[in-house]
Design brief:
By secondary structure, this protein is an alpha/beta fold. It has helices spanning 14-25, 54-66, 85-92, 95-98, 127-131, 152-155, 164-171, 175-188, 224-234, 243-250, 285-294, 310-314, 339-343, 354-362, and strands spanning 2-8, 33-38, 71-74, 110-114, 122-126, 134-138, 140-144, 148-149, 193-203, 211-221, 261-264, 296-300, 320-323, 326-329, 349-353. 32% of the residues lie in helices and 23% in strands. Strand 7 and strand 8 form a beta hairpin. Helix 8 (175-188) packs across helix 10. The structure holds iron/sulfur cluster (2 copies). Residues 298, 314-315, 317, 319-320, 329, 334-340 line the site of one iron/sulfur cluster.
């Protein structure tokens, strides 16, 4: 039976939890080349909890070295749009230092890999992702306005280099199509071992604009789908209703049913955990109409905007231009991918449902 283990901890004592998890799952480390893949969404300090916490990265690197890894690499293709900013983003996120000399820029050496996808024939992955003997994923427990949850499956989207992520956003439009694209990427190189940073989680409008929530746990597994299913259940969600998990389960990539998962440790459904309203199953006509009305659109909060231009660069369909007054969004072009929301570090890119948005316009 697929296992998910839960450990109670805080960031100060996280090394002990990581050691327990490595002992329990015993991934084959000795003599291997290992890639550690945290979730580095953007160039923000650890206190914001948008990225995987550096203490989990540091503890993982040390655990791998204690177990005789031949080579350890740490890196992510963050949500920036050229190859250069990866390293600067990792430095600001505290992950460059936490890697203790093992940081690599995953954007430096892309390799085209054939994919089974209706959206692309091949995609540019980081060479290290494809060539590592062992892939250790360190996702963060967060909600996501486009895919409902982040977690281990979504963390593999950062295996894609630079603008390749943008390209997929552009062709896989809408929550269901994008979920399918995420699983297409996940399927190419699934992580062998996962440690989820659920010490300080994010609820509400994640992955960057939500509220922090103390959960005090690390989750471990050797199956990404099972781990995400347990995380989703802790958020009060039904895993089967989350498109990325349902699609992954249907492709035989892991169980999304808690009855098929052996859970050890302090599992708990977190009371009133706030989740975003999009990305859920939308099978029926009524649900489709409802989802159209409720679908979110980005809105600039000009009072908070510092005109940094990240949202302009992030938009895969060039729907945002920078004016003197700040970013202007062309809603006819917008495909509601929420990259702009994800990339805004100043909580200046808000989301509003179409209905609220139209009412606001009329008002
Ligand atoms: S909305 Fe956010 S990302 Fe866009 S320019 Fe303003 S501060 Fe920067
Ligand atoms: S405006 Fe924002 S949500 Fe719309 S397509 Fe551009 S990045 Fe995506």
């Amino acid at each position: 039976m697929t296992r998910v283990a839960i450990y109670e901890t805080d960031y100060e004592h996280i090394e002990a939890a990581v050691e327990q998890a490595f002992d329990a799952f015993a991934p084959p480390v000795n003599g291997r080349t290992v890639l550690v893949k945290p979730n580095i969404l953007g160039a923000v300090a650890p206190e914001r909890h948008i990225n995987t916490h550096p203490s989990l990265v540091r503890a993982t690197v040390r655990a791998l070295k204690r177990r005789g890894a031949a080579r350890v690499m740490v890196g992510d293709n963050s949500g920036m749009f050229a190859y250069g900013p990866n390293e600067q983003t990792a430095r600001t996120a505290g992950i460059f230092d936490a890697a203790e000399g093992h940081y690599v820029n995953l954007g430096a050496s892309p390799v085209k890999v054939p994919v089974k996808s209706r959206f692309a024939n091949d995609l540019a992955f980081s060479r290290e992702v494809i060539e590592a003997d062992l892939l250790v994923s360190l996702p963060k427990m967060k909600t996501h306005v486009a895919t409902t949850i982040t977690g281990a499956v979504k963390n593999t989207y950062g295996h894609l280099v630079g603008g390749e992520k943008t390209m997929l956003h552009r062709v896989a439009v809408g929550p269901m199509a994008f979920a399918e694209a995420v699983v297409d990427v996940f399927q190419v190189r699934r992580p062998d071992f996962i440690l989820l940073d659920a010490v300080t989680a994010m609820e509400g409008q994640g992955p960057s604009g939500g509220q922090l929530r103390e959960v005090g746990r690390v989750l471990a597994s050797d199956n990404a789908v099972a781990l995400d299913a347990v995380m989703a259940a802790m958020m009060g969600l039904e895993p089967r209703r989350i498109p990325i998990l349902r699609i992954a389960e249907e492709r035989g990539l892991g169980p999304d049913d808690l009855d098929a998962i052996e859970i050890s440790g302090p599992f708990e459904v977190l009371p009133k955990f706030k989740v975003p309203p999009v990305g859920m199953g939308m099978g029926t006509l009524i649900a489709r109409i409802g989802s159209y009305v409720l679908v979110q659109q980005p809105i600039v909060r000009h009072a908070k905007c510092v005109k940094c231009g990240s949202c302009v660069k992030a938009c895969p369909v060039a729907a945002i231009v920078m004016a003197d007054s700040g970013p202007l969004i062309d809603y006819k072009k917008c495909i509601s991918c929420f990259c702009c929301h994800e990339m805004c570090r100043y909580e200046a890119m808000d989301l509003s449902s179409r209905m609220r948005f139209f009412l606001r316009l009329r008002g």
